[in-house]
């Protein structure tokens, strides 16, 4: 946390979630000066019969900045990571959040971060008028917010998560993934589950994680039958207030695909600033960093997961996610 670019994704807690759920092997390259960390390049080896062996920094992670000082990562740690990849016969090494001078971008995304160092009233005024109206409507409709750190809250969220993933045509992560988030993140007070209820029914929810003075909104889900109650907006607003009142400095809204204009507007609507996140990929067959022309398209698979039974989708997620890092 002494480095200006630290985030929750650099923590051992997040690494343990990946390792325990999917068996990914961590390989964290560091430069130390005494007890002080000067540079960090975190990776995990993901290996499967379907996609081969590769290094990812880090799997299922929106961004993971390389913690650098005086160019040590590119000059010292990157060659060591490539050397390990050659020894382990990785197909590629993918890093998420930094682009080296000689590397082209493999993928470009946007991210949004909210400054929490303001009075609550000022943060509310900085929200777009549509966001303020949605918050007030949820309050008028007697939507109730719960900020919890219990397994029961995680199960309530997971039910919504499965529903939301199916709506978007994606398989849900296995429940063991969220069990490990509870075990290594929520239970040790590095995050919480925020749920919105309407007359006892959970209508929306989100998982937030934090370390030091920085927080991140990692997962969100909602029941579309109650969309008019604006539970999502109230969940976000109550989490913002919670973090602001507890002295946190920033709330990160995670990664967004550039074409996802609706999601970008939602995140900007809170007064968050937009940043660019670039991924780079080193291809070991070519011996160089590579780029791609377009983002992957998945319309057919989206339709397939939207139409298959919910139980089948959960089974696919349980079997497939280990291969998808």
Domain module tally: 2
Number of helices: 10
So what's the CATH class of the largest domain? Alpha Beta
Percentage of residues in helical conformation: 25-40%
Describe the main β-sheet briefly: 12 strands, mixed
Number of strands: 12
The fraction of residues in strands falls at 25-35%
Shape: globular
pLDDT under 50 segments (min length 5)? none
Q: What is the rounded distance between the termini?
A: 26 Å
Give me the CATH fold name of the largest domain: Aminopeptidase
CATH superfamily of the largest domain: Gcn5-related N-acetyltransferase (GNAT)
The whole-number mean of residue pLDDT values reads 91
Written as H for each helix and E for each strand, in order along the chain, the element string is HEEEHEEHHEHHEEEHEHEEHH
Description:
This protein is of the alpha+beta class. It has 2 domains: 8-108 and 277-317, 3-Layer(aba) Sandwich (Aminopeptidase), CATH 3.40.630; 111-275, Aminopeptidase (3-Layer(aba) Sandwich), CATH 3.40.630. Helices cover 37% and strands 30% of the residues. The chain contains 10 helices and 12 strands. Strands 1, 2, 3, 4, 5, 6, 7, 8, 9, 10, 11 and 12 form a 12-stranded mixed sheet that branches. Helix 4 crosses helix 7 (231-245). It starts with 11 loop residues before the first helix and ends in a 5-residue tail after the last helix.
